[in-house]
Specification:
The complex is a heterodimer of chains A (613) and B (150). Helices cover 53% and strands 19% of the residues of chain A. Chain A has 613 residues and is of the alpha+beta class. In chain B, helix 4 (103-111) links the parallel strand 4 and strand 5 (116-119). Chain B is globular, with a radius of gyration of 14 Å. Classes of the chains: A alpha+beta (613), B alpha/beta (150).
Chain lengths: 613, 150
C-alpha cells in the first residue's frame, strides 16, 4: 500500500519531532497566553471603569456641594454690600449727593480682583438707579428685570444663570436692599467665571489631572470650562446617571453631571474614555511581554526536549539500518542513559546479539546439514554404482546363457522348453530396462544441474536421431518447426525430449502411423515447447498421475514400459526451473508442453553476474 | 598389422561375463587370442611380465586391453593409472568394459588415459555387435606406435 495514498490527513506525519514538539507546545502557550491576557485585560478594564465611575460620581457630588456652599457665601458677601449705609441711603433717596458714596460702595477699588464685571442698583419698582463697571458689555435691562422677578419678597437673594458674551462667561448675584424691613431696591453684581490659578489647582486636586470640570446652566445653553466658554454637552445634564458621549476635540468621554442646589447651575466632570483604557493597555502590554518571554523559553525547552528524545531515536534508527544492511557488529551505544530510551537501546542490543548468535548457529547448522547431505549424496551415488554394476551383472548372465541355451541346445529342447528360455530372455531385458530407467531417474534427481544457453533445435534433432530405431520400426513422421534457444541443462533436457518423443512414438495404436509435431511459442520471457502426437491420449483425470514414478495406465503387453519415463521428465524439468504439463483426451492424441526460461533470461543472469562481479 | 598375431588381455572377475565375452569372441572368430586375468594385481603382473607371466611366449604382450573397473584387489582405475605411468605401456590401447554408466567413472577413466569406454550390454546380441566392432576397430584398423621393448 502506498503510504502517501491517504494524503492530507497524515500530512503532519512527515514533520520531524524536533519541529513538531516545539510547534505544539508553542501553539499551546500562545493559546494560553492569549486567553489569559484577554481575560485579564477585560477584568482590569472593568475594574478601572468601576473606579473611575465611582470617582466621577463622588467628585461631581462634592463639587455640586462646594458650589452650593459658595453660593451662600456669595449672597452673604453681596448682602453686606447692599447693607452699607451709602447704598441704603441712595436707594431711599436717589439724589446726586448720595450717588458718589453709593457708587463707591457698589464698585470698590478692588472690583477687578473680585472678578466683578459690572454692578447695578435697581429700585423696588423696577427702575435702574445706578450702574458701574463694563456696563455697555454686560448690562441688559430686560435680563436684569427677568432676574429680579425670580426674587421672592422673603428671599435673601438669588444666583442667576450664566450669560455669555463672546468667549467670556459671567453670572449674576442679586440681593434685595432692605430698609426698615421693607424692600426698597436691589443690588445686582455680575461676576466673571474666570478662576484663579490657585482655585484651578484646587479643583484639579479634586477632579484629578485627567478630568475636566465644566460649569453651566441646567438649561444647557451656556457652559464654561472655568476660563472660557465651552460647547454644551450633547446630553441632558439633568440626568444624574453616568453619561457617555463624544466631545469634539477630546473624543469619547465618561461624564457625570449634578444640578447645584438653589441655583440654575449644573456641574459637569468629564473623564476621557481613552484614559480609562490606559491601565488595561499597560497591563496588556506587560502581560504580552511576559507571554512572549514564556513562549521563547517554552519553544527553546521544547526544542531541547525533542532533541534529547530524537537524537537517541536517530541513533537507534541508524543502528537498525546498519543491521538491516547486514552489519551486526555496531552496538547502539545508549546504554548509559537510564531512561526508557536507554532501556530500549539495551533491549535492542540484546536482540542484535541474539540475532547474531542465532545467525551463527543457523549458519553452523546449515554447514553441518550440507556436509551431511553431501555425505548422503555420495552414499547414494555409491548405491547407484552398485546397482548399475552389481545388479546388472547377473542379468547379463541370465540373458546371455538363456540365449546360449537357445542357440546351442535349442534343437534338443521342445517348444515349451524354448518358450521358457525365451521368457527368461524377455524378463531379463525388462529388468534391465527398469534398472536403466531407475538409474536415469536417480541421475536426474541428484546430478549437478548447471544451466546454460541451449540450442533447442539441435537438442531435438539429436533426440530424434537417438530414436532412429523406433522411428524406423513404426514408420513415424516427426515434424520439427524452428525452435528458439532456451536456458537449461543439456544432458537433462536431451533426456526429457527423448523420453517425450519416445512416448509419442510408443503410445500409438499399432494400426496408426505415429505423427509427432514439435513446436515452440514464446510467452513473456519463457519458451513453451510443445510435443504433440496422434496417439491414444490420456484421460484428464490421469494427467497428474502420469508424471508419478512407476505409474502406468496400460499393461506391458499393450505398451511396454517401466513407468519411469515421465517421472524423469518432470523431475528433470523441475530441476531446470521449468514446468511440464499436458493437454489431452482419450483417443485425441496428447500435447505435452515444457516451459523453460528463454535465452534472454540467461543474458539477464550474465548481466547481473557481470555487474555483481 | 595382422589380426592373426594380435593378443587381447581381458581383465574381468565375473566368470559369467568371461564365458559370455569369450563366446562372443568365439562367434567373431578370434577366441584363441584372448588372455584373461581375474583381478587388478594379476593384470599388472601380466602387463609387467612378472611372476608367472614372465614367459612372453606363453603370455604375449597384448595389443589391446579390455579392462573392467570393479575388480578384486586393485581396481580397474588403479590398473589404468599404473599402466599410464609405465613408459612401455603408455601407448597401449586400454578400453574400459564395465557395467557402470556413472559420470564419475566415465570422467575418471578418460582423465586417466583410457582410449575408449564401453558399457556392457545386457543383451547378448548387443555384446556380439560390440565385440565385432571392437575387433574391427582396435584389432584391424587402429594403429599404435611400436612398443618400446624392455
Amino acid at each position: 500500500m502506498d503510504p502517501k495514498a491517504d494524503g492530507p490527513r497524515r500530512a503532519g506525519r512527515g514533520v520531524p519531532f524536533t519541529i513538531r514538539l516545539p510547534v505544539l507546545i508553542g501553539g499551546l502557550l500562545v493559546v494560553v497566553i492569549a486567553i489569559y491576557s484577554g481575560a485579564a485585560y477585560e477584568a482590569v478594564r472593568r475594574s478601572s471603569a468601576v473606579v473611575v465611575t465611582q470617582r466621577l460620581v463622588a467628585v461631581t457630588d462634592q463639587l455640586a456641594e462646594m458650589l452650593h456652599q459658595s453660593r451662600g457665601q456669595l449672597l452673604k458677601a453681596v448682602r453686606q454690600v447692599a447693607d452699607t449705609a451709602a447704598i441704603r441711603a441712595f436707594t431711599v433717596q436717589p439724589s446726586a449727593g448720595l450717588r458718589v458714596n453709593a457708587l463707591a460702595a457698589m464698585w470698590p477699588s478692588n472690583a477687578a480682583a473680585m472678578q466683578l464685571a459690572a454692578a447695578e442698583l435697581w429700585s423696588a419698582d423696577g427702575q435702574r438707579l445706578l450702574n458701574a463697571g463694563d456696563t455697555a458689555r454686560w448690562l441688559s435691562a430686560p435680563v436684569t428685570s427677568e432676574l429680579l422677578r425670580t426674587i421672592a419678597p422673603t428671599d435673601s437673594g438669588v444666583v442667576g444663570p450664566f450669560r455669555a458674551v463672546g468667549d467670556s462667561v459671567v453670572y449674576s448675584v442679586a440681593v434685595p436692599i432692605l430698609v426698615a424691613g421693607r424692600i426698597r431696591g436691589y443690588l445686582v453684581q455680575w461676576r466673571h467665571l474666570a478662576s484663579s490659578a490657585q482655585s484651578r489647582e484646587q479643583t484639579n486636586q479634586i477632579v484629578g489631572a485627567n478630568s475636566h470640570l465644566y460649569l453651566g446652566n441646567l438649561a444647557n445653553d451656556v457652559w464654561s470650562d472655568l476660563s472660557v466658554r465651552a460647547a454644551p454637552p450633547p446630553v441632558d445634564v439633568a440626568d444624574t446617571s453616568l453619561l457617555r458621549y463624544a466631545r469634539p476635540g477630546s473624543g469619547a468621554v465618561l461624564a457625570a453631571a449634578r444640578p447645584v442646589a438653589n441655583t440654575p447651575w449644573a456641574v459637569l466632570v468629564e473623564f476621557p474614555h481613552e484614559m480609562l483604557l490606559t491601565p488595561a493597555r499597560l497591563f496588556l502590554r506587560h502581560s504580552l511581554l511576559i507571554g512572549a518571554a514564556i513562549l521563547v523559553l517554552g519553544l527553546f525547552s521544547a526544542w531541547v526536549l525533542s532533541r534529547t528524545l530524537t537524537k537517541p531515536l536517530a541513533q537507534l534508527t541508524h543502528a537498525a539500518e546498519t543491521i538491516a544492511a547486514g552489519d551486526y557488529r555496531q552496538p547502539v551505544g545508549l546504554q548509559r542513559r537510564r531512561d526508557e530510551l536507554g532501556r530500549l537501546a539495551g533491549a535492542f542490543d540484546t536482540m542484535v546479539t541474539r540475532v547474531r548468535e542465532s545467525q551463527h548457529q543457523l549458519e553452523e547448522r546449515v554447514r553441518a546439514r550440507t556436509a551431511e547431505l553431501q555425505e548422503r549424496n555420495e552414499e547414494l551415488e555409491a548405491f547407484g554404482y552398485s546397482i548399475s554394476h552389481d545388479l546388472r551383472a547377473p542379468l547379463r548372465a541370465m540373458e546371455g546363457f538363456s540365449q546360449a541355451l537357445l542357440e546351442d541346445y535349442g534343437d534338443r529342447l521342445d517348444a515349451t522348453g524354448r518358450g521358457y528360455a525365451e521368457r527368461v530372455v524377455t524378463a531379463t531385458r525388462r529388468m534391465d530396462e527398469l534398472i536403466l530407467d531407475l538409474l536415469a531417474y536417480s541421475r536426474v534427481t541428484r546430478s549437478d544441474v548447471r544451466l546454460g544457453r541451449l540450442d533447442l533445435g539441435r537438442l531435438v534433432q539429436g533426440a530424434v536421431e537417438q530414436l532412429d530405431a523406433e522411428v524406423r520400426n513404426r514408420g513415424a513422421r516427426i515434424v520439427v518447426e524452428p525452435l528458439p534457444p532456451v536456458v537449461g541443462h543439456e544432458a537433462t533436457l536431451a533426456q526429457v525430449i527423448a523420453n517425450l518423443l519416445g512416448n509419442g512414438i510408443k503410445f500409438v495404436p499399432p494400426d496408426r502411423t505415429p505423427e509427432i509435431r514439435v513446436r515452440a511459442e514464446r510467452r513473456d520471457g519463457t519458451v513453451r515447447l510443445w510435443i504433440e502426437d496422434n496417439g491414444i491420449g490420456i484421460a484428464p483425470e490421469h494427467h497428474d498421475r502420469v508424471f508419478r514414478i512407476f505409474e502406468r495406465l496400460h499393461g506391458t503387453d499393450d505398451f511396454p514400459g517401466t513407468g519411469i519415463g515421465l517421472a524423469i521428465v518432470r523431475k528433470g524439468v523441475e530441476r531446470m526451473g521449468g514446468r511440464v504439463g499436458l493437454d489431452s483426451k482419450v483417443g485425441g492424441g496428447s500435447r505435452f508442453w515444457v516451459d523453460l526460461p528463454g535465452a534472454e533470461a540467461m543474458d539477464e543472469l550474465e548481466q547481473r553476474d557481470h555487474t555483481a562481479g | 598389422m595382422s589380426s592373426n598375431s594380435a593378443t587381447i588381455l581381458l581383465v574381468e572377475d565375473d566368470e559369467n561375463d568371461v564365458i559370455l565375452i569369450r563366446r562372443a569372441f568365439q562367434k567373431v572368430g578370434i577366441d584363441g587370442l584372448v588372455h584373461r586375468v581375474g583381478d587388478g594385481d594379476a593384470a599388472v603382473a601380466y602387463l609387467a611380465g612378472t611372476g608367472e607371466y614372465a614367459d612372453r611366449a606363453r603370455y604375449p604382450r597384448p595389443n589391446a586391453v579390455l579392462l573392467d573397473l570393479k575388480l578384486p584387489r586393485r581396481s580397474g582405475l588403479e590398473v589404468l593409472t599404473w599402466a599410464r605411468n609405465e613408459e612401455s605401456l603408455d601407448h597401449l590401447p586400454i578400453i574400459v568394459l564395465t557395467s557402470s554408466r556413472e559420470a564419475t567413472d566415465l570422467k575418471q577413466a578418460y582423465a586417466l588415459g583410457a582410449n575408449s569406454y564401453l558399457v556392457k550390454p545386457v543383451e547378448f546380441d548387443s555384446l556380439l555387435d560390440l565385440v565385432r566392432s571392437f575387433e574391427a576397430y582396435w584389432m584391424t584398423w587402429n594403429t599404435t606406435p611400436e612398443p618400446f621393448e624392455k
